[in-house]
Specification:
This protein is mainly beta. It contains 1 helix and 11 strands. An 8-stranded antiparallel beta barrel has the order 2-4-5-7-8-9-10-11.
């Protein structure tokens, strides 16, 4: 089976301010959907009341304390807000987050048309594979004539990874001076189908995981949830 190693993507440079590039097709990419929940401690062991009761022989002090945790959803719009803070910028209405890659994945922000790249976020936000296993089937047909050899056929793979989603803007000077640094690790499944003749493929990617970190200066955040994307484009073998 042919091992797919990377996607053919447009060379990208990190943009700190919004600047739309010339329209061009974005290869092997798709909208990224974040469905995460962030848990944090609102208060811990806060004293609610102290009551003292005296008797002829004893003094009894009763102290009541309580703790409370809160949770908040983190979707793709919230991630875009994190990126705006990290890169000191504002995205136009309709901007969306897209993902590209095989095995390891990077993220871009595009405008409402989906063809103009506003930001390469891969220096801050990415998914990396730690360990992976692969199963599938490839049918390769090679036709040779006086003009050369032409390949056709198809390849399907189910790639299972232990992967880590990372967000880390500690190296940047952010808009509000706070930083976001968290990791989410778990099982990632990439269902891939490729046309060998054209190198075009579709992928259905799902990462389910949990992790911890700091969000805009607030530490000890626990996260869980999923990141999904359907990618389409050209693969490079």
């Amino acid at each position: 089976m042919k091992k797919i190693t990377m996607l053919a993507v447009i060379p990208l440079l990190m943009l700190v301010t919004i600047h739309a590039w010339a329209a061009a097709p974005l290869e092997a990419s798709g909208t990224a959907t974040f469905t995460l929940t962030a848990y944090s401690q609102k208060y811990l062991d806060m004293t609610v009341s102290i009551k003292t009761h005296y008797t002829s022989t004893t003094t009894n002090v009763t102290t009541v304390t309580k703790s409370k945790a809160t949770n908040a959803p983190i979707d793709s719009a919230v991630i875009l807000g994190f990126l705006e803070n990290s890169f000191k910028t504002n995205f136009p209405s309709g901007a969306e987050l897209i993902m590209s890659g095989v095995g390891s994945y990077s993220f871009l922000v595009v405008d409402s048309t989906g063809t103009n790249v506003l930001l390469d976020a891969s220096t801050v936000l990415s998914i990396a594979a730690n360990v992976s296993v692969d199963s599938g089937r490839e049918t390769l047909i090679q036709k040779t004539s006086h003009t050369g050899t032409k390949d056709s056929g198809n390849n399907t793979e189910r790639i299972i990874e232990y992967a880590t989603l990372s967000y880390d803007d500690n190296a940047l000077s952010t808009k509000d001076g706070t930083h976001t640094n968290f990791q989410l690790s778990g099982i990632l499944v990439d269902m891939l189908s490729e046309n060998i003749g054209t190198y075009r493929a579709t992928q259905s990617v799902t990462l389910r995981g949990a992790g911890t970190g700091t969000i805009q200066g607030k530490s000890n955040i626990i996260l869980k949830g999923t990141v999904t994307a359907t990618l389409a484009g050209v693969l490079v073998g």
